[in-house]
Amino acid sequence: MNLIQFVGNTLFVPFFLISVGMLVNPRILIQEPKSLIVSGVILTVAIIAKYLGGGGAGELLAFKFDRVIVMFRLSVAQAVSTLAAITLAYNIKLLDQLTVNGTIAMVLVTCIAYPWVTAKWGTN
Predict the structure, then answer these.
(1) Which phi-psi region, left, alpha or beta, contains residue 93 (left: φ > 0; alpha: ψ -120 to 50)?
(2) Which among 81, 45, 70 has a CA at the least distance from the CA of 124?
(3) For position 67, what pLDDT does the model report?
(4) pLDDT in tens, the chain (124 residues)
(5) With contact defined as beta carbons under 8 Å apart, do 78 and 106 qualify?
(6) pTM as predicted
(7) Where are the alpha helices (DSSP H) in the chain?
(8) Which residues contact 41 (CB under 8 A, 6 or more apart)?
(9) In angstroms, how far is the first alpha carbon of the chain from the final one?
(10) Nearest to 76 by CA among 60, 102, 56, 101
């Protein structure tokens, strides 16, 4: 089991992240203003959907506000499954470059911003 984890963590994960990073075309962000709108819509929908799931359950169970925020935060960061799905969808020509860039931007924002939210609200 240790050998499998070692090989996966040292070979598979870095190569997977590099291959997904190669899908991103930063020129589209500059050349195509619509890409920022697509990124914003994807990010907004992801945050609202995760709040309805994690935060909604916390409110339904009558948790305190700080616990609701922590439940929401722990469910909002999306990386591995999202990257795998977007890679597959792009490879079979289901999505265009704008959607790929928007999804990568959503992953970047949620993975950078939400540890701060957890640190702020999860200390109580």
Answers:
(1) left
(2) 70
(3) 80
(4) 787 777 776 777 677 777 777 777 777 777 888 888 888 898 899 888 888 887 778 878 888 887 887 777 777 766 777 888 888 888 899 988 888 888 888 888 887 877 777 777 666 5
(5) yes
(6) 0.71
(7) 2-7, 13-21, 26-31, 34-50, 56-60, 65-76, 80-91, 97-121
(8) 102
(9) 36
(10) 56
For residue 103, give the 3-state DSSP assignment.
Answer: helix
Q: Which residue has the tokens 């089991």?
A: 1
How far is residue 91's CA from residue 78's CA, in Å, rounded to a whole number? Answer: 20
Is residue 80 within 8 Å of residue 110, measured between CB atoms? no
Tokens of 16: 């997977």
